[in-house]
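Quick question, first post here. What does this chain look like in 3D?
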Amino acid sequence: MPPEGQTPDVAINDDAPAVPDLRDDSVADPLELVTSNIDTTLMLASWLKSHPADRVSTIAPVGNSIDDQFCRTAVAKTRLGGVTLVRSALFYMPAPPKGEMLPANLSDGAENQCQLGAMVLASEEMDLRSAESLRDSIAALIDKRLGPHTETVPEYAGGLGGTAGTKMWQAKITTVVAKVSLPANNAARARTFTVAYTPTSGATDFDSWEARYEERHGQTFADQQSRYSEVDSAVKWAQLPAVANDLTTVVGYLRGRNEDGPREVKPPQIDAALIRALTAIHQAAPSLPPPRRAAALLAGDIALAATYGLPSADSGHAIGNALPSLGITLEKSSDGGQYYGHPWLWEAYRTDSTSRAGRIAFVTLLGMQWPEDKSCGDEYKKVIQHGEAALTKGDNNPLIHYYVGSAYKTIYDLAHWENEEVGNPAPFKPLAEPARLKAIEHFRVALQSLPDRVTRREAWIKAMLLLLRRSGDQPEYVCFPD
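> Answer (accepted):
Ran it through. Tokens below.
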């Protein structure tokens, strides 16, 4: 989100004009724009036909662009009485369609994909008293159109913080707020914002944003039941009935627990079942043929990794105490703690990388950004190197395409992300467009056969962001040193 007190593409400071150099919007009444029910089916192309003087920007004046699928804003100057305002029409990516199909025309730009979701009227910077007076004057005009306002307003309604005295109205699906915002760098100056927004926009209050994020990214009950299917398959391939019974108990618990509910304590019998299964795998593995050994180690690794860190009723730390006897040493983290470094997963991969279990181990490691060592380097390079090598050899697992696509998207994001820990984006600029095109192609292939709904949605969202040349996200496959 741009800092409060910043208009699209133009930072407001003491040396710059308060209003960007824009043409006037002589087409629409500014109050009509913020008090009418927003038409969320209106595409950017249609808007620009009726507002040809607008400048298009990729910076939102309000709202958090990360995970909100912000696309573009169309900006112009407007006047309300004797006051000059900056009017911004904010457009957003649509919700993922059924089947997460990408547009038929992959060259289709933002004009034909992005839908109207919010409208913003922003004043120039002024002293606080004048800003509050302007807010109250605008509120009085909106009261006449929408009825009396309420001052019981959710936190961050309108997409940014504000002073006391925020006003709020509801017009069908559109919420309207009028507020005064103080720039972080100058508390003596302020701006007035009038924001009309729908539940699909990034200007929503936090509760609405959270609900929309959960709808786009969250897991359903069916999704949760399908998790850990790799354990089911690996147990079958390992052909160890005793292990199968105990791991079925562990996986059944993992599938049934409410990850978003109150802190849930893992029952002692789950730890006991896991230890029995791991012990049986450790004892049997040396004598198993490579494909079955890889399968047994894979099943044990996934179950242990998913269970080890959960809150437990076992105050004796039975799992941690049992690991040395299984040949498993925990890794030390930078904060002095310990974590499971997946030695069995690596062993499964190296035991028989071409078996069914070995290929699952490979894809799992790829999804973990190929953690061969503890160094903090260019993770995206490792994913591309190993992923493309596997694809060249004929491995057509759609997850490989998904992870490689995410790695290429990281290059594109690095070219548009300036951060002290990440470094200068300049070296990535020449690589950005080729990486964008490769990432889109990998996501397109992945979406043809990815079975997991949640991953399909993530792939679709990432591909759409790239199709719309929307970046600024924190690069995904980059290590941030502690």
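The first strand starts at residue 6 and ends at 7.
The chain has 16 helices and twelve strands.
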